[in-house]
Amino acid sequence: xxxxxxxxxxxxxxxxxxxxxxxxxxxxxxxxxxxxxxxxxxxxxxxxxxxxxxxxxxxxxxxxxxxxxxxxxxxxxxxxxxxxxxxxxxxxxxxxxxxxxxxxxxxxxxxxxxxxxxxxxxxxxxxxxxxxxxxxxxxxxxxxxxxxxxxxxxxxxxxxxxxxxxxxxxxxxxxxxxxxxxxxxxxxxxxxxxxxxxxxxxxxxxxxxxxxxxxxxxxxxxxxxxxxxxxxxxxxxxxxxxxxxxxxxxxxxxxxxxxxxxxxxxxxxxxxxxxxxxxxxxxxxxxxxxxxxxxxxxxxxxxxxxxxxxxxxxxxxxxxxxxxxxxxxxxxxxxxxxxxxxxxxxxxxxxxxxxxxxxxxxxxxxxxxxxxxxxxxxxxxxxxxxxxxxxxxxxx
Length: 396
Prior knowledge:
This protein is of the alpha/beta class. It folds into two domains: 3-61 and 69-135, 3-Layer(aba) Sandwich (Rossmann fold); 160-380, 3-Layer(aba) Sandwich (Rossmann fold), CATH 3.40.50.720. Helix content is 43%, strand content 15%. The chain has 15 helices and 15 strands. It has helices at residues 47-63, 84-94, 96-101, 113-122, 130-133, 139-150, 160-179, 196-207, 230-235, 300-308, 316-319, 322-331, 339-364, 368-384, 387-391, and strands at 10-15, 22-27, 35-36, 39-42, 69-76, 103-104, 153-154, 158-159, 188-192, 211-217, 220-223, 253-255, 267-270, 289-291, 313-314. The strands form three sheets. It has a seven-stranded mixed beta sheet. Strands 1, 2, 3, 4, 5 and 6 form a six-stranded mixed beta sheet that branches. β7 (153-154) and β8 form a beta hairpin. It is globular. The model has no long low-confidence stretch (mean pLDDT 94).
């Protein structure tokens, strides 16, 4: 079944009784009675956006052959608003029937994992993976495993749960370089967005030896063709992922925020907002490939324009699926608290998928999104042919 061609199972609109803020839940598909997808918060979030993201989650879970469907939550509010956390808690309370039994949510744009876990704890649900954990033969043991994995320390002073998504994006970039016989040290990258996903990707690309020449946050673009000191820049970020400009070296150029798209780099990683690449700026892209770290980062029209110029787009439901795939491997006990095991599993699967997509692009010009959708559809069809596997799904 092509999950990009079916209507969602559920569209739900919520209005906060205190502030009037709108919130949305879209469940695109249920598999084994479950759907997974984060909850985002941003000003001007719409039902249409959340529906696109839920569809992407359904493709993501199918592409990585996970035993779960796709969903997404969204709240139309600036996360910097002082009322934001209370609105998030009321949204979760209103969504409790789904969160209790069917919807496994997590962090997303504007909602870090620790905040959504705090909202769940206030509801007595302990952790945002609750709907899956409650199916376990031993929920307390599974909760301990999940918490141990999320909080496992990794080099750089961060936690595994905070960096695994960005690590997956970095592996997608490294997979492109390997497929095209590009040496890491000769490859340049521009990253739009330096929050959890973009920051993690930039860190691991820097660690791998790639030259990250540009990063952009809400305040603008920082550019140095010789390569940026990524660890130092990340260390200077505030709680909203913005870099302290007083700590930026004098030799780094400061450009408008949108300039990151047009800079000379081998790989462009849009990791900030949905619909960052549109027909208005697609012709400005100078990269050889686009890796979608943000959900729905490229509009269909822009992607067609890029393909016409010979620039493939590795779609979000593959490139940024690392966090979702890893969460389910963790829930199912396929990885544990040792980061090395998680990194190996994700590195192996991500690079193999990217190689497959680029192979189709090189052989017959098939856009990576189309190749990815075919892969997802095949996985879903094989799963549907053996429904007993999902019906009997138990979390160990």
